[in-house]
Amino acid sequence: MRIRATVAAVSGALVLSALAVPSAQAATDSEGDTKITKVVVNGGKNVAVGTSTAKTFSVSVTATDNSGIAGLDDDLLWLQGPGFGMLTPTGASTCTRVSATTSTCTANFTVDPKTDLAYSNNMAGTWYVNVWVDAKDGDYASVDKGYPFKLQRSSKLTTNASPEPVVKGKTITVTGKLTRANWDSFTYTGYGFQPVKLQFKKAGTSTYTTVKTINTNSTGNLSTTVTAASDGYYRYSFAGTTTTPAVSATGDYIDVK
Fold it and tell me: How far apart are CA 172 and CA 225, in angstroms?
C-alpha cells in the first residue's frame, strides 16, 4: 500500500510551522525498482542571499525505473532549513527524458530576504531536500531530509592599501572590512572575529599568494602592516563559513618607488 505524509504546500514561501520540524536524519522509502540517482541544488553551488533581491534557483532530480519516470510529486517536494524553515516550489516541475528508464526533473524555488527571511538570520546554514518521484507503473521513491546544501548570508569584503605611492622598505597599512547580509535589518553588517588572509599579487603576474592571516575585530574591520617591496596588488580573502560564503576583495594596487 502506498502511504504518503502530507505536507502543507505554500508556494514560494518560507514557513514557520510545526509541520517543518526536522527529522533526526534522512529517511528513504520506495516501492518497486524506482531509484533517485542524483539531486543537484543550484547547479551544485551554495545559495547565497543578500538583503534586497530575491534569489531564484533550481533543484534537479534524476531518477530511474524500468517503466520510466512519470514525474515529481510537487506537493511533496520541499526544502527544509534550520529550525522550522520550509521552502516550496514556485511552479510546477518539468521533466526531461534521458532514456526509456531515466528522467531528470527540475523545479524552481525563489527566496526573498524581505519576506521569506525577514528577522530570521538563524535560517542560514544547512538545508535539505525532501522529494517524491513517481514511476509510470505506480512505483515510487522518496527521500526526507536528504541531499544537504547551504543557504547563506551573502558576504562583502573590501581592501585599501596606503600610502600610495610608497618608498621601498617603508610600511604599508592595509585596511578592510568583512560584512554579511543581516536579514534582521536588511543591511550588511560587520562579521566579527573571523580569520581573513592578506594576499599579494606582484605586478606582471597572475597569482595571489598569502602574506599573513589576521582576524576581523568585533565589527568586522581589518588592519595590518607590511613592508613595501615591489609594485603589486593587495587584497583580503575570506574562506567562508557554514552560514556565510567565501569572498575575496578587489585588489588594491600599490606603486613602490
Answer: 5
Residues 78 and 86: beta-carbon distance below 8 Å: yes
Query: Bridge partners of 69?
Result: 135
What type of residue sits at position 191? Y
Would you call 7 helix, strand, or coil by DSSP?
Answer: coil
Backbone angles phi, psi at 196, to 5 degrees: -135, 135
Q: What angle do CA 65, 93, 150 make, to 5 degrees?
A: 95
Taking every pair of Cα atoms in the chain, the longest distance, rounded to a whole number of angstroms, is 80
> CB neighbours of 118 closer than 8 A, spacing ≥ 6?
183, 186
**What digits encode the pLDDT tens for the residues 157-184?**
999 999 999 999 999 999 999 999 999 9
Predicted model pTM? 0.86
Bridge partners (DSSP) of residue 156 are 179
